[in-house]
């Protein structure tokens, strides 16, 4: 839509130049200019409404929407292009207004060559400028040229009024868009601030979780250390008990062997005695 408006603006400027290039305004050019100006006005209003709807839609989306940032960027870009187009159109209309006014000044000097700049400005700024020219026409010695100049001045005066109306509408559109931007900035800022706070809270939560995990790891490590110490103590106790009982068993076995040796020693002499007998 903005591309269409830009093309229309270029065409409007061309039609203004064509109109200024002729002594008497061409009716076909006049109708084309009026039709194109009206069409451009309608497209501008439609574009403004579209941007307003997009802004409202973006505000209604949840902050965590995945493509929200892309949507906002696209809408902001569209809004900026629209404002630039309005400014361009307004500048072109200002320039053409000045061209029409300069043309009217020249025609007034044809009617009244001795007119001062103040007198010319007063005549051009007055809605009844035709009466000023008609009065000057009666006093002019160049009746034919003055009559043609009067007709053109009246036509150009109407053109200037139409241009001024367009400029006023463009100014209103521009101001509406500026107010829309200001109205949207506050909620967007609040949403962004909320998103930042949520991010901070999440980061804080992650830090707490990490600390909890570290604490849990430390507790598990201490638990395993205690378990290992207990197992080691049990092993030591088991070894001590085992050695204690094994030592007693070894000591008891040695005593029996000594008794048997002593018995054998006692019996042996007795056998020898019997043999001697």
TrEMBL record:
Q: Where in the cell is it found?
A: Membrane
Classification via Gene3D superfamilies: 1.20.58.70
Q: Which GO terms describe its cellular component?
A: endomembrane system; plasma membrane; SNARE complex
Q: Which GO terms describe its biological process?
A: exocytosis; intracellular protein transport; vesicle docking; vesicle fusion
Transmembrane stretches in the record are 224-245
Q: Name a GO molecular-function annotation.
A: SNAP receptor activity
InterPro entries, A to Z: SNARE (IPR010989), Syntaxin (IPR045242), Syntaxin_N (IPR006011), T_SNARE_dom (IPR000727)
Q: Which UniProt keywords apply?
A: Membrane, Transmembrane, Transmembrane helix
In this chain the T-SNARE coiled-coil homology domain maps to 150-212
S-adenosyl-L-methionine found in the keyword field:
no
The record's listing under PROSITE patterns reads: T_SNARE
Bilayer topology reads:
Single-pass type IV membrane protein
Question: Metal-binding as a keyword?
Answer: no
Question: Where are stretches of biased composition, namely Polar residues?
Answer: 265-277
In residue numbers, the region (Disordered) covers 255-277
> What protein family is recorded?
Belongs to the syntaxin family.
Q: What is this protein called?
A: t-SNARE coiled-coil homology domain-containing protein
Record the organism. Gigaspora margarita
């Amino acid at each position: 839509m903005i591309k269409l408006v830009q093309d229309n603006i270029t065409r409007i400027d061309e039609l203004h130049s064509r109109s200024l290039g002729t002594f008497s305004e061409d009716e076909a050019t006049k109708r084309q200019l009026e039709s194109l100006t009206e069409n451009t006005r309608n497209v501008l209003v439609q574009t403004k409404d579209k941007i307003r709807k997009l802004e409202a839609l973006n505000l209604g989306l949840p902050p965590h929407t995945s493509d929200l940032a892309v949507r906002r960027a696209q809408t902001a870009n569209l809004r900026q292009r629209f404002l630039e187009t309005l400014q361009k159109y307004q500048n072109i209309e200002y320039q053409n207004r000045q061209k029409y006014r300069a043309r009217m000044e020249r025609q007034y000097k044809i009617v009244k060559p001795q007119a001062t700049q103040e007198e010319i400005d007063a005549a051009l700024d007055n809605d009844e400028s035709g009466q000023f020219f008609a009065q000057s026409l009666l006093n002019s010695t160049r009746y034919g040229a003055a009559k043609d100049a009067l007709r053109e001045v009246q036509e150009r005066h109407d053109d200037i009024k139409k241009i001024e109306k367009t400029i006023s509408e463009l100014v209103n559109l521009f101001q509406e868009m500026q107010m829309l931007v200001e109205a949207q900035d506050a909620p967007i800022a609040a949403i962004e601030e909320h998103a930042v706070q949520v991010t901070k809270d999440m980061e804080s939560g992650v830090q707490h979780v990490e600390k909890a995990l570290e604490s849990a790891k430390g507790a598990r490590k201490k638990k395993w250390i205690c378990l290992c110490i207990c197992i080691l103590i049990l092993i030591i106790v088991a070894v001590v008990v085992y050695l204690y009982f094994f030592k007693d068993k070894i000591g008891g076995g040695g005593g029996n062997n000594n008794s048997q040796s002593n018995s054998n020693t006692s019996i042996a002499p007795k056998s020898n005695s019997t043999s001697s007998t």
